[in-house]
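Lecture notes, unit on binding sites. The following record was shown on slide 14. It pairs a sequence with NAP.
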Amino acid sequence: MSEKIGFIGLGIMGHGMAHNLLKKGHDLTVWNRTESKVDEFVAAGAKKAQTCKEVAENCDIIMICVSDSPDVKEVVYGEVGVLAGLTEGKLVIDHSTISPHTTLELAKSVNEKGAFWLDAPISGGNEGAANGTLSIMIGGEKEQFNRALPYLEAMGKGITLVGDQGAGQLVKLVNQILVVVTGLAVSEAMVFAQAGGLDLEKTLKAVEGGAAASWMLSARGPQMIERDWRPGFTIDLQQKDLRLVLEAADQLGVPLIATSMVFNMYRTLQQQGLGGEGNHALVKSLENMSKITLGEDHK
Ligand code: NAP
């Protein structure tokens, strides 16, 4: 049976995800805090809700993709939030990257209404969201995972049930350690190549198919070379994820040497007012230290 889907949060990621649900012909209701972002979805066949409560009242499955833990809390617990419209049997799927601890709190509140919760954070950048090729890492019950799968398949390719509620968010933090440390490696390699007088495009082409291959290198390396700092993922949100990683690592008593270094490098960029740039602008932190600028001899 086809279920009615609601989508809350039409930002960089939600934009592509909601469009892909529509493209697959799903019955979609949307809500966004900045109302004007809803218009293009209504033009493409979606229904518009006035509040998150209305999304929950009118839909069977409610998907959320907003910025941080307090934002998901606002959307769920607010006076006209999801919880106010939720009834037994409905399913809430949170695609935002938030604290595993907050996730358990939210899941409990939703479960107390007789409804279900999956934490389902995503990876793959704005490109993955637009192309329907996201990785989706899910925490929750197998039965609800199977229920959600046909809809998640409209938005992603690698869709994995990784454990109970909260496990999806913890795996996402694993993902973020890999993303930022790889980002640091790409940044360091590019600055080194620049200092060596190499052609950066040829260098990238020569190494991206070998043992050094990575999504970060192939998707964000060219943007670094072109000094295109438009965000697929902003430094501010990347920094939010690293805060979540370091908080969890502190609770677990695990040293994360490289990740904490990147956290502080991003902090220097935020202090320069660059929090709205893409996370690949990490290279600027190394440029500042080394006084070597990518592409300077191409200008
Ligand atoms: P974004 O472009 O900044 O969009 C954020 C969305 O959240 C917007 O729709 C915004 O509404 C909404 N929002 C924020 N605070 C809110 C609040 N208090 N109440 C209601 N709505 C609120 O961010 P994004 O890049 O799409 O990221 C969304 C989530 O996906 C984040 O958790 C991020 O960490 C995660 N993520 C992002 C990427 C990526 O590459 N971009 C990849 C994987 C995961 P307005 O339109 O009104 O501002």
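Take-home: The chain has two domains: 5-164, 171-290.
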